[in-house]
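User: Hey, my collaborator sent me this sequence without any context and asked if I could get a structure. I don't really work with proteins. Can you help?
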Amino acid sequence: MKFLDQAKIFIQSGDGGAGCVSFRREKYIEFGGPNGGDGGKGGSVYLEAVENLNTLIDFRYQQHFKAKKGQNGMGSQMTGSKGDDIIIKVPVGTEVLAEDGETLIVDMVNPGQKFLIAKGGDGGRGNMQFKSATNQAPRYAEPGWPGEEMWVWLKLKVIADVGLVGLPNAGKSTFLSVVTQARPKIADYPFTTLHPNLGVAWVDNYEMVIADIPGLIEGAHEGVGLGDRFLKHVERCAALIHLIDVNNDVVEVYQAIRKELDLYSENLAKKPEVVVVNKIETLPDEEVAAKIEALEKACGKKVVAISAVAKKNLLQALRAVSPYVTRDRRKRDAEMAEDEVKAAEEKKPWSPLDNM
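Assistant: No problem. I've predicted the 3D structure and written it out in structure-token form, which is a compact way to encode the shape of the chain:
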């Protein structure tokens, strides 16, 4: 299945049905009054976040979603039937933006979350509703009210606990394939990874979802290479693993990637970071130690040295990032519990004791 992380779609809710102009006509009843029924309500359009989707590719083949119109009212006080609703299923983590691409309408982050994005138009009133003491036989009925229509952008940000960042060919995909069951494409050339890959790693009986995105290069925040298109996929992560090839100038590479993160998003730049030096099997131990010492002085953090190919010190790297993931999950669980309490309080029926 091809990965697609943004799509533009057209949404239109159904118009309300028109009210009916009708009069009672029966044998022996000379002056039957008005009996035109109301029009039915138009169908609404909902968004629903589902867990079994991880791409927006379906919206490449269907861009228009139009709910049904409400049925017109009929005689004998018969109300028209309601138009069928439409439910558009999107992956968890999808942001819905207005046509300008910047105004956020809703962020679909919870499985099963539903959002009414376009309400169906109300049905028009039939002539029976307009009967009065001064107008016993109204010959007027309302037309149905129009539905809503809009173009919106769907932008998917994958849900992961840890994001892998670094230059192309730093070994991110190899690292992901070794610590998880994911099988990303691995080759010895830049930009082998063309879309985010997800994998689940286990650390001391605790799971974490890791996202590998295409490598960053200078100017990524402005769209150079593939960087700015995919940096959004690590914005939701609890922490970052900054992977650096030990064969490069590690200090220069670290500072270049940090610069891109700072320029792209203040929120992304503030995320907790574990600095990892990879491919240590390719250099003598003394040279590796010297590079790690210089890097630790530059970044002010403890650097983890690993070899993804030789599967060396991988658990040490995962344990370094695990506390940030645990802290983030506890925070989210507390926020969800607080939201549930608020929702329960809002649904609580009023009691005279509330004012005592």
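In plain terms: Confidence is low (pLDDT under 50) at residues 184-193. You can pass these tokens on to your collaborator as they are.
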